[in-house]
Amino acid sequence: MSRDELRRVQALLNKVGGLLETDGLTGRNTRRAIREARALAGLPAGELADDALIDWLEAQPDPSPELPTDGVTFIASEEVGGRDFYERHAARPIWPGGASGITIGVGYDLRFSADIFEADWAPRLPAATARALRPWLGEHGSKAGADRLKSIRIPWTTAWQVFIGRSLPQFVGHTARAYPMLADLPGMCRAVLVSLVFNRGPGLEDMPGSDRRAEMRAIRDLLRAGKADQVPDQLLSMRRLWPLARGLRVRREREAALWAEGLSRPD
Description:
The chain has 267 residues and is mainly α. The chain contains 13 helices and two strands; from the N terminus they run αααααββαααααααα. The protein has a two-stranded antiparallel ribbon with strand order 1-2. A hairpin with a 3-residue loop joins β1 (103-104) and β2 (108-109). α4 (69-80) packs parallel to α10 (187-200), α9 (156-178) crosses α10 (187-200) and α12 (231-237) runs antiparallel to α13. The mean pLDDT is 95.
């Protein structure tokens, strides 16, 4: 298989949660994604991207009708830190800290999901797992609480299904309400805004005496004024908010780069 052919396969695997860089290089993440896709497709086990697998992948729907698949892959990868990090850490319930609740899957916060948990997760989880998580619905999380749940593992395929079936559409809606011009943007720019809202929430107004949402308001105003090319400056400006959190600063840098890429490759 040529490098270009492998890039195409990697892009197809991302439709079903591969979380792959489309670099055309065969590595363990690509081999794992092929194994998982073959299992999903009901094909014989293995690491071969044969015609049967490619035909099945091509027949699968895109993960989002509003966002490009590479944009969805970016959001999920940022939320879970990539597949390796997910398997080592995020597959178990975690407490991100602060006012968050116990969080599972792709940024699914049980504190804010009490009314939808049964539909989203209960049919996909063993009964004992769902029973152990229910006491945390609507509640603040804690490290001790996460430690008590450390025997639970959420399979990636299950986390992906809930992400594209519930969380992502929900946050596309939140983003569209905060930024009504969302639908008029190129696909990757739409994905960047959804990434931002997924990470920071949709609110644009600050508490008195605070300016933590200033750049988010500025992005809205720039889009209203037709100055989409200036949005990356605001994304980069947000780095001031996290002087000690390198991961968040790097995420804003990646979003800024993807925004510029989106403007250069309109749908």
